[in-house]
Design a protein that fits this description.
- The complex is a heterodimer of chains A (about 425) and B (about 70).
- Chain A is of the alpha/beta class.
- Chain A is about 40% helix and about 15% strand.
- Chain A is built from 14 helices and eleven strands.
- In chain A, helix 4 crosses helix 6 and helix 11 runs antiparallel to helix 12.
- The N terminus of chain A is likely disordered.
- Chain B is globular, with a radius of gyration of 12 Å.
- Chain B has a two-stranded antiparallel sheet. Chain B has a two-stranded antiparallel ribbon with strand order 2-3.
- Chain B has two helices and four strands.
- Chains A and B meet through helix 3 and helix 11 of A and loops of B.
């Protein structure tokens, strides 16, 4: 499976946008190491991965969008005994792409981790998955047994929860502490697990890195835009014929994604782009890029038949409840934002100005970006659904129901 | 070198002493937690800022050199 960096991949590079999921098995079962090797070819291991990753322009796919090459370089420059962590927490309720990758093509994710570990001289790789991701953990356990690298693989279970995937919260959980974010600095690349420099990468980022290691930076850049090269996985849900996980190239139009999914099944009011840290848009011509707020790749096609304000208020309450509760502005501010949106959804009172001010006031005031993301969602809801808000306040009620298009329940299995 | 005031949001529990000592640069939000101006602190306020840092019972206030963005 492994080879020296000088050996070329013997398998043709994937064409078009079907890079990560196009070679999955038809029956949805995990691709074994043998099958994987036949589909993707040898994995080159070497320290030139850091330069190749930087040249490719690959960026983190967990929502942060930080340049992967730069992150690898930051860990490498610290020296010491680096650790690699696969971030498979995927706490965003509307996201399923990381689980799909881990379940269907586990070796692509593990390849990325192995390549990163080899480039950094790391001897330990920890794969963190959420408690509810039982199937994924079983698949990964089997996959890890098939691996041949001289590296120690460890599977770790972390709690379910929206903020658990935040790097420092994840590392806290892996260290046996509560899964809550810590102050930065120190960043994980400076002082992570056991005080060692730690590379934390989202599952999709590592799967993408595995392809960059094989097929190179130019191949990677043959999709996407010059500013944001490559493809991205999108979890599309809501009122479309075939909700699911789609691979798009950065810069693709929202309308193309919806068409890929068989089109809308009923009139759409708006799209939520970027999940619960994201923003609403009514523009189907929007180009899906990280700059446009694609985040961790969540898109919800939101129909006119459900009440956007009731659903958004429920999401705002969920985000408030998911606060780690450590930072005052997040703990109190998000709860206040949720309360305000709930009152508007009931048509009870109009405190839009106060809500907008509160939303602005929590930005940048947490140990992590949870308050920033929640505030962005609330602000976008008020802006995009301004007419609906006015109607609610005029009539004092709404004849539409909350159809739970936006999931906030316990994590799915 | 220019300095900025920073609050450790985990340590801060909103006692508000800093706001009393440095109202020119720190205000309270609607929940009673301090909001510091993120801009470089004017030198004229540095003495007061140092006092606010010293007096914070949670040691949550720091005066530090401006930082560049790091991987997150």
């Amino acid at each position: 499976m492994t080879s020296t960096a000088s050996q070329r991949a013997r398998v043709a590079a994937p064409h078009g946008t079907g890079r990560l999921l196009a070679r999955v098995r038809g029956d949805g079962r995990a691709v074994s190491l043998e099958e994987h090797a036949a589909r993707y070819g040898l994995l080159p291991l070497g320290d030139d991965l850091i330069r190749t990753a930087a040249e490719s322009g690959l960026s983190g796919r967990g929502g942060g969008g930080f340049p992967t090459g730069q992150k690898l370089r930051a860990v490498a420059d610290r020296g010491g005994r680096p650790v690699v962590v696969v971030n498979g927490a995927e706490g965003e309720p509307a996201s399923a792409k990381d689980r799909a990758l881990m379940r269907c093509v586990p070796h692509l994710v593990l390849d990325g981790a192995a390549a990163a570990a080899a480039a950094l001289g790391a001897h330990e790789i920890i794969i963190a998955t959420a408690r509810s991701a039982r199937t994924e953990r079983e698949v990964l356990t089997t996959a890890v047994r098939e691996r041949r690298e001289r590296v120690r693989w460890r599977l770790a279970t972390v709690p379910d929860g929206f903020v658990v995937g935040e790097e420092t919260a994840l590392l806290a959980a892996l260290s046996g502490r509560a899964a809550r974010p810590t102050n930065k600095p120190p960043y994980p690349f400076e002082r992570g697990l056991g005080g060692d420099p730690t590379l934390v990468q989202n599952s999709e980022t590592l799967a993408q890195l595995a392809l960059v290691a094989r097929f190179g930076a130019d191949w990677f850049r043959s999709q996407g835009t010059s500013q944001e090269p490559g493809t991205a996985l999108v979890t599309l849900s809501g009122a479309v014929a075939r909700p699911g996980i789609y691979e798009i190239e950065f810069g693709a139009h929202l309308s193309e994604l919806v068409a890929q999914a068989g089109g809308a099944t009923e009139p759409l009011a708006a799209f939520l782009v970027g999940g619960y840290f994201g923003t609403w848009t009514r523009d189907a011509d929007l180009r899906l890029t990280a700059a446009a707020g694609l985040g961790a790749g969540v898109v919800v096609a939101f129909p006119t038949s459900t009440c956007a304000l009731q659903e958004s208020a429920r999401v705002a309450r969920y985000l408030a409840e998911q606060s780690a509760g450590q930072c005052g502005p997040c703990l109190h501010g998000l709860s206040a934002l949720a309360g305000g949106l709930e009152r508007i959804a009931r048509g009870a009172d109009d405190d839009r100005e106060q809500l907008t001010r509160w939303a602005a006031d929590v930005v940048g005031r947490g140990a992590c970006r949870h308050p920033d993301g929640a505030a962005r969602f609330v602000t976008s809801t008020l802006t995009t659904f301004e007419q609906e808000t006015t109607r609610h306040l005029a009539h004092g009620h709404c004849d539409k129901r909350d159809r739970a298009i936006l999931p906030t329940g316990p994590s799915r299995e | 070198m220019s300095k900025t005031l920073r609050i450790d949001p985990i340590a801060c529990d909103g006692q508000g002493i800093c706001v009393e000592l440095l109202p020119e640069w720190i205000r309270l939000d609607d929940w009673g937690f301090p909001v510091v101006d993120p801009n470089p602190l004017p030198e004229t306020l540095e003495t007061h800022a140092r006092r606010a840092v010293r007096e914070c019972p949670k040691l949550a206030l720091r005066l530090e050199a401006a930082r560049e963005r790091s991987p997150s």
